[in-house]
Amino acid sequence: MTYYLVRHAYADWAPDEDRPLSSIGQKDAQRVAEILTTYPITRIYSSPYNRAYQTIVPLSERLNIPIIIAPDLRERKLCEGEIDHFSEAVEATWRDPNFAHPGGESNLAAQRRSISFIEKIQRQNQNEHVVLATHGNLFALLLQHFDPSIGFAFWKSLTMPDIFMLEVGTNQKVQIQRLWGEEVNP
Description:
Layout: E1 2-7, H1 23-36, E2 43-46, H2 50-63, E3 67-69, H3 86-95, H4 107-124, E4 129-134, H5 136-146, H6 152-157, E5 162-168, E6 174-178
Parallel strand pairs: 1-4, 2-3, 2-4
Antiparallel strand pairs: 1-5, 5-6
Helix pairs in contact: 1-2, 4-5
């Protein structure tokens, strides 16, 4: 099974999780489509949040493949309300995967949610090439399941957008390759 993990393109920050892409993000979404149309994509799943969905709309239109909304691809909720030191708050969750800020979701809980979703679509869509449009934390947590060396530094190095190809063989042999730029490797 081959997965193309897409971290959403740039959206101007706002407390609303459903914020749309910026004009820069919309241009980058076109580039995401250009890159991924060179692969044999068979299904496209997206987080319900606009910034993830809008990042793969151009791909969906080019390939004429509908986008399936997948609530389990939503971003991990860091905490209830706003937080003063975002990067430090995220780092705390990577130091202890069971830790959750008040009203938030732990890394372990978010990772279990994403892996459960992956296992479900793997049972339903064997040997397909599937796009998963999601968010930075969930993206990194999903990859960490397959490569435990992935951590906070990897999350911090991700760009908006970003694309990684994850190939999971029948013997559970895994290959991870970055498709967006060459400067970051897990």
